[in-house]
Amino acid sequence: MSSHEPFFERLSTLDHAFLATESENCPMHVGAVLLLDAKPLRTETGGVDFAAILRFIEGALHTEPRFTQRLHKLPGTREHVWVDDPHFHLEYHVRHAALPRPGDDRQLKRLAGRIFSQNLDRQRPLWEFWVVEGLEGDRFAMICKVHHCLTDGMGAVKILGSMIGNSPRTPKPRTPRPVPSNRALLRASLGRRVASLGDVRAHLGRLRSAGGEAAAHSPLSGLFGTLKKGVTPGPKTSLNPAHVGPHRRFDTLRLDLAEMKEVKQRLGGKLNDVVLATVALGLHRYFRAQGEAPRLYQGFRALVPASVRSDDKQALGNKVATLIADLPVHESDPRTIYELVTRETAFLKHESNSVRGIQILEDLDDALGLGAVSGAFVLAGKMRSFNTIVTNVPGPPMPVPLFGAPLLEIYGLVPLFAQQALGIALFSYAGHLHWGFNADWHAVANLHDLVAAMQSAFTELLAAARAEAP
Predict the structure, then answer these.
(1) What is the distance, to the nearest Å, from the Cα of residue 183 to the centroid of all Cα atoms in its chain?
(2) Which pLDDT score is estimated for 306?
(3) Per-residue pLDDT tens for 51-89?
(4) What is the Cβ-side half-sphere exposure of residue 64, based on CA atoms within 13 angstroms?
């Protein structure tokens, strides 16, 4: 396409859902806190070479054009499209900060919580990177925010991959393309709706054929099961206040990946089963310490996103199916919790066929443009359809350089929905599983106690596994 021709790209129905769900108190960005070795980027004055980091990011931008595009809303509709931002300025999005030396991890987490509390400006490309120097141990940090309508967790790994290396790419010239007129955009939207009628018939055919499968295991049955949970409130806990506030706490935990894999090798199941069992047992211990009665919290639910990307070369945007899993926080025995978790995840992934059913619904809504998925997201938050979010993203298994500096640790962030004061994002990297905890400032004032409960819970689970024959 010529740089002089008008340009736009549409958002999917799932991308739109994260825009519709966002509010002043519930910003919908994903994020991460990265810790890096500062030595390769050390300047003569003892700081970090910010200009070198800018060169790396600038060289990577041509691989991800979405980072120089902004939202444009079609008048009289719920629909948004991506257009080139003629006023893009790299140093608005990449910011330089410092902790009072020697800055410790606690100060970094407080800063991250403050940055994660702030909504991104919808009039500009929807991302920010903060380079934070002054961290003890000859380290510096990168705090990243990217709106969820732009990408999901696996897409974020793709973004990270574009900046791996010891030398920057040569930046390519960028000429913003003009925005089409609103009339042209509306005409294109209407044309797509008409052209998608064939897709609608195909998706309806998939639903009919799905309904012909064994009733208990059909995608249609899995979809109905998910929708039923979506309109049934989960139990009311201290992690589910009536209104989530605008301020965030952020904390971290790092567990040995080999030990986590040992649990699944001894007890069966998948790595994510070990994660969910640790969360369930940790929450049980946390609730009891809070003076709550976890035995009353049967039916506690976690939203567990499942990636449906076909390969890592797919464009950015969201390619996930959202599953709702019951977590047995009412149980206290590690072995019992693990058995219940593996049974639940096996049903959701295989027997219920929920992932396929949700994909059909998303495809159908994408073709019709009814906003059903957006409405379901908003309703789920108001109905307390789930109590927390647990998302797990695989990262590089070996250490990698980022901006020419060794990447030491990386902790993810998942946004909070209404009535949900805790989100847990996990990222595997270089032999460890890194846990990032995003929490409402007031509802989870003792987030460090919750993190300690998770650490203790995994220790118990590992001991229970080692008591079993391998």
Answers:
(1) 35
(2) 79
(3) 999 999 999 988 888 999 999 999 888 889 999 999 999
(4) 25
What does the alpha-carbon distance between residue 169 and residue 334 come to, in Å, rounded to a whole number? 49
Residues 107 and 230 in one domain: no
> Of the residues 118, 152, 186, which one is the last residue of a structural domain?
186
Q: How many domains does the chain have?
A: 2
Q: Do 325 and 251 sit in the same domain of this protein?
A: yes
Contacts of 67 (CB under 8 A, 6+ apart): 61, 93, 125, 127, 159
The whole domain housing 298 covers 196-392+414-466
pLDDT tens digits for range 89-140: 999 999 999 999 999 999 999 999 999 999 999 999 999 999 999 999 999 9
In a domain, 401, yes or no: no
d(CA 202, CA 288): 51
Half-sphere exposure of residue 319: CA atoms within 13 angstroms, side-chain side = 15
Q: Are residues 231 and 141 in the same domain?
A: no
Asked if residue 397 belongs to a domain, the reply is: no
Backbone torsions φ then ψ of 168, nearest 5 degrees: -75, 155
DSSP E strand boundaries for 136-219: 139-147
Q: Are residues 170 and 257 in the same domain?
A: no
Domain assignment present for residue 209? The answer is yes
pLDDT for residue 1: 43
Domain assignment present for 404: no
**Mean pLDDT rounded to a whole number for the chain:** 88
Judge if 95 and 212 occupy the same domain. Answer: no
Kindly list the distances between the CA atom of residue 19 and the CA atoms of 192, 210, 368, 464, in Å, as whole numbers in the listed order.
21, 30, 18, 43
Q: What is the pLDDT of residues 8-18, one digit of tens each?
A: 998 988 899 99
What residues contact 169, with CB distance under 8 A and at least 6 apart?
56, 59, 60, 62, 63
What span, in angstroms and rounded, lies between the C-alpha atoms of 206 and 208? 5
Of the candidates 37, 81, 89, 82, the one whose C-alpha atom is nearest the C-alpha of residue 61 is 89
